[in-house]
C-alpha cells in the first residue's frame, strides 16, 4: 500500500472506460481467432496455437466485471470530493492502491445494511451480527477499509447500532459493539481519509434531532478512541452546547440500553464520558462550549454541571464523568507534578475554583477525581497553604509579592490559602482517597525537605525552615478540612487509630534489625516516608485543637497503651533527615550509628532498641531516655544543626493555619 505521504489516485471514469475498452478488445480477439482459425483449417493447417488468443480474450472478459465493480466502488467512495484540476472527467480520487480491502469492506457494509439488519428476525440478527463481528474488528487493521465500511453503511443503521444490539436481545451486545467502535476509531484516526467518509465524520459531529440518535452516536464515539477534535465537536454538538444554553431540560435518552452497556442514560453524562480520558478534548470543549452566544467563564460553565448533578436523577453518573473530565483536562495522570503545561494548569486552577466552594457537599462520585487532581498538583496545594508570604493573595498565575521560591517546589499557579482549604475539603471526607493523597504528600514532604537541606548545605538560606513551615501549614489545612468534614472528635480519633496502626513509633518494628539489607528494609524505608506525613499532621493536633490537646494525648494512650510526644519525635526525625542530606555537622558517636544501614539511627530504631534492652520491670522509656542523651549531646555540639532542627520541628507543628483562615479564608 502506498505510504500516507504518497499520492495514489484512481479516476473512476477512466477505469470504466478501461473496462469498456477491454470488453471491445476481447470481442475483437475472439472474432480474429475465429476468422483466422477458419482460414487455416481451409488450407489444412492446424490452429492449436490460436487457443492462446482465445484464452487471452476469455481472461479479459473475467476482468471486465471486476473493473466495472471497482469503478462503481471508487465512485461511491469518492463522495463529494472535488475533481482534480487539469484532468478529464471526474478527476483522480485519492484512495489506497490496494482495493481488495475496500471491496471486502463494501461486502460487509452490504451484508449488514441490506441483509442482516433488515431481513431477519431478532434472534437471527443477533446470531449473524455476532458471527461476523470479528470481520468488522479486522477492518481496524486497515483504516481506509474501516472508513469505507462506515461510508457505505446506511446512516440509519450506523445511528441505531447500540440500541439495536440490545433491542434484539443480543447476549454479546457489549462485545459486538466494541468491534464496531474499534473500527470506527481506526477510520477516524486514519492519516488520510476515504473522501466519502468525510460526510460520516461530519454527521457524527453535528446536532441531530432526537436524544436516542444523539446517545447512540456518543456511545459509538466513546469506545472509538476518537481524535480530540472529534470528541470535542461531537460532545458539544450532541449535548453540551445546548446544555450550556439551557441546562434545565430532561436529558434522559436511554435506560435499558444504557444499563446493558454500563453507560449512563443521561445525554449530558454520556457527552462527558466521550471527553473523559482526553485532556485536549476536555479543554477544547469547555473553552468553546455554547458558542459565541454564551458569555460564561470556564469556571461558571463547570459550576453548571455541578448544579445539574445535584438536581438530576442521574446526578451520580454526571458527577463521576464530570470529575474524570476535570482530571483529564488538568492532565492529572499524564503530566508530572510540578511540571504541568500552561494549558493543563489553567484548566486545573479553574477546576479547583469551581469545585472548592462545594467543599464536602461535592457529590461523592466526584471525590476520587478531586484527589487525583490534588495529588498531581501537590506543588500548587503546598504553595497555596503558605501563610508566610502574601497571605492576602488571590488565586492566579502571577507570582505573589515578596514571594520566596523554595528549591524543588515549582507551582504553575498560586492558590490563596482559602481556595486551597476549600478544595481540600472536596476529598478529605473519604478516607480511602485521602490515604492516596497522603502517600503523595508524604513523598513530596520528604523530597522537599531533602532538597532544601542540600541547598542550605551549599549556602545557608534558611530554606529548610521555610519548607518545614510550608509543610506544617499544608498538614494543618488538611487536618482542618478533615475536622470540618467529620467533626473534631471523629477526625482526631481516626488520626489516632491510623498512628496506632501504622506508625513505627508505636513499637510495630517495621524496620528489620538484622545484618543484611533486604527488600523488606526498602519497604520499611518507604513506610517511614509515608508515615512521616501522618505524624506531621499529628504534630499539629494538640496545638490546632486548643482545648482538645489533653483528650488527644489520652486518646493516643488508650489506643496504643503508650505515651506520645509528637514534638519530641519530630525533632529527631529532622535531625536524621538533615544528616542524610549531609548538612554540615560533626560525626555522630558510634552508639548512634545503625549497624544495619551504617547511617544515623532513626527514632524508631532507638525505640526498638530500648524495648529490647529493658530488663524485668524496667520501663523501656527510661532506657530510651538514656539513649537520647547521646543524641542530644551530638545535636547540642553542632550549633547550626541544632538551631535548624529545633526551628524546623517547632514550625511544622504550628497552629497558623487555624488562626489565619479566620481572616484569609
Descriptive overview:
- With 665 residues, this protein is an all-alpha fold.
- The protein has 31 helices and two strands.
- The protein has a two-stranded antiparallel sheet.
- Helix 22 packs parallel to helix 30 (639-652) and helix 28 packs across helix 29.
- The two termini are 64 Å apart.
- The model is unreliable at 1-8, 81-94, 501-518, 542-549 and 559-564 (pLDDT under 50).
For this entry, give a set of tags.
mainly alpha, two-stranded antiparallel sheet, 665 residues, disordered N terminus
**Average of pLDDT:** 79
> Got a strand count?
2
First-residue to last-residue Cα separation: 64 Å
% residues in beta strands: under 5%
The percentage helix is: 55-70%
What would you say about this model in short?
With 665 residues, the protein is an all-alpha fold. The protein is built from 31 helices and two strands.
SSE blueprint:
Elements: E1 9-10, H1 12-42, H2 51-78, E2 93-94, H3 100-116, H4 122-131, H5 133-138, H6 143-152, H7 155-167, H8 173-188, H9 197-204, H10 211-222, H11 228-245, H12 256-261, H13 267-275, H14 279-288, H15 298-311, H16 315-329, H17 342-355, H18 364-376, H19 378-384, H20 417-424, H21 431-458, H22 463-486, H23 488-502, H24 519-539, H25 541-544, H26 549-560, H27 566-580, H28 603-613, H29 620-636, H30 639-652, H31 656-664
Antiparallel strand pairs: 1-2
Helix pairs in contact: 1-2, 3-6, 6-8, 6-9, 7-8, 7-10, 10-11, 10-13, 11-13, 11-14, 13-16, 14-16, 15-16, 15-17, 16-18, 18-21, 19-22, 20-22, 21-22, 21-24, 22-23, 22-30, 23-24, 23-26, 27-30, 28-29
Amino acid at each position: 500500500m502506498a505510504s500516507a505521504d504518497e499520492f495514489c489516485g484512481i479516476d473512476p471514469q477512466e477505469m470504466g472506460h478501461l473496462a469498456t475498452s477491454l470488453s471491445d478488445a476481447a470481442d475483437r480477439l475472439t472474432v480474429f481467432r475465429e476468422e483466422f482459425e477458419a482460414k487455416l483449417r481451409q488450407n489444412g493447417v492446424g490452429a492449436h496455437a490460436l487457443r492462446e488468443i482465445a484464452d487471452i480474450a476469455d481472461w479479459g472478459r473475467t476482468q471486465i466485471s471486476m473493473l466495472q465493480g471497482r469503478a462503481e466502488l471508487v465512485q461511491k467512495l469518492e463522495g463529494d470530493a472535488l475533481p482534480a484540476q487539469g484532468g478529464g472527467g471526474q478527476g483522480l480520487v485519492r484512495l489506497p492502491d490496494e482495493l481488495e480491502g475496500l471491496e471486502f469492506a463494501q461486502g460487509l457494509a452490504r451484508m449488514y445494511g441490506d441483509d442482516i439488519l433488515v431481513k431477519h428476525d431478532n434472534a437471527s440478527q443477533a446470531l449473524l451480527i455476532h458471527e461476523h463481528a470479528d470481520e468488522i474488528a479486522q477492518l481496524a487493521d486497515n483504516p481506509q477499509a474501516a472508513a469505507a465500511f462506515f461510508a457505505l453503511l446506511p446512516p440509519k443503521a450506523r445511528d441505531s447500532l447500540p440500541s439495536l444490539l440490545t433491542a434484539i436481545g443480543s447476549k454479546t451486545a457489549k462485545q459486538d459493539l466494541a468491534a464496531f467502535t474499534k473500527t470506527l476509531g481506526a477510520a477516524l484516526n486514519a492519516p488520510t481519509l476515504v473522501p466519502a467518509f468525510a460526510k460520516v465524520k461530519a454527521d457524527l459531529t453535528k446536532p441531530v434531532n432526537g436524544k436516542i440518535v444523539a446517545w447512540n452516536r456518543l456511545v459509538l464515539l466513546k469506545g472509538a478512541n476518537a481524535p480530540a477534535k472529534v470528541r470535542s465537536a461531537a460532545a458539544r454538538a450532541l449535548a453540551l452546547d445546548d446544555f450550556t444554553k439551557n441546562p434545565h431540560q430532561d436529558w434522559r435518552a436511554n435506560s435499558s440500553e444504557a444499563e446493558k452497556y454500563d453507560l449512563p442514560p443521561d445525554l449530558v453524562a454520556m457527552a462527558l464520558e466521550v471527553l473523559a480520558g482526553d485532556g485536549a478534548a476536555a479543554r477544547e470543549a469547555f473553552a468553546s462550549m455554547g458558542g459565541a452566544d454564551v458569555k460564561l467563564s470556564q469556571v461558571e460553565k463547570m459550576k453548571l454541571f455541578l448544579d445539574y448533578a445535584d438536581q438530576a436523577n442521574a446526578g451520580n453518573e454526571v458527577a463521576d464523568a464530570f470529575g474524570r473530565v476535570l482530571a483529564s483536562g488538568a492532565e492529572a495522570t499524564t503530566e508530572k507534578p510540578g511540571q504541568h503545561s500552561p494549558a493543563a494548569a489553567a484548566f486545573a486552577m479553574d477546576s479547583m475554583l469551581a469545585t472548592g466552594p462545594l467543599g464536602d457537599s461535592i457529590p461523592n462520585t466526584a471525590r476520587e477525581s478531586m484527589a487525583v487532581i490534588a495529588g498531581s498538583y501537590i506543588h500548587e496545594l503546598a504553595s497555596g497553604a503558605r501563610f508566610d508570604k502574601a497571605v492576602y493573595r488571590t488565586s492566579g498565575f502571577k507570582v505573589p509579592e515578596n514571594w520566596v521560591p523554595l528549591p524543588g517546589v515549582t507551582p504553575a499557579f498560586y492558590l490563596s490559602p482559602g481556595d486551597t482549604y476549600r478544595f481540600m475539603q472536596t476529598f478529605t471526607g473519604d478516607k480511602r482517597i485521602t490515604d492516596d493523597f497522603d502517600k503523595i504528600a508524604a513523598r513530596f514532604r520528604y523530597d522537599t525537605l531533602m532538597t532544601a537541606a542540600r541547598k542550605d548545605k551549599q549556602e545557608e538560606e534558611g530554606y529548610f525552615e521555610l519548607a518545614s513551615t510550608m509543610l506544617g501549614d499544608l498538614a494543618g489545612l488538611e487536618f482542618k478540612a478533615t475536622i470540618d468534614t467529620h467533626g473534631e472528635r471523629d477526625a482526631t480519633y481516626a488520626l489516632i487509630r491510623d498512628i496506632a496502626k501504622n506508625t513505627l513509633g508505636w513499637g510495630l518494628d517495621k524496620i528489620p534489625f538484622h545484618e543484611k539489607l533486604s527488600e523488606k528494609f526498602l519497604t520499611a524505608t518507604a513506610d517511614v516516608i509515608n508515615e512521616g506525613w501522618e505524624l506531621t499532621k499529628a504534630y499539629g493536633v494538640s496545638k490546632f485543637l486548643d482545648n482538645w490537646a489533653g483528650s488527644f494525648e489520652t486518646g493516643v494512650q488508650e489506643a496504643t497503651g503508650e505515651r506520645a510526644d509528637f514534638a519530641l519525635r519530630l525533632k529527631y526525625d529532622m535531625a536524621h533527615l538533615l544528616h542524610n542530606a549531609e548538612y554540615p555537622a560533626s560525626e555522630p558517636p558510634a552508639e548512634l550509628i545503625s549497624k544495619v544501614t551504617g547511617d544515623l539511627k532513626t527514632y524508631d530504631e532507638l525505640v526498638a532498641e530500648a524495648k529490647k534492652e529493658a530488663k524485668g520491670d524496667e520501663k523501656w522509656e527510661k532506657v530510651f531516655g538514656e539513649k537520647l542523651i547521646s543524641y542530644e549531646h551530638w545535636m547540642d555540639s553542632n550549633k547550626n544543626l541544632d538551631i535548624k532542627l529545633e526551628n524546623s520541628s517547632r514550625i511544622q507543628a504550628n497552629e497558623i493555619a487555624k488562626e489565619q483562615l479566620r481572616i484569609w479564608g
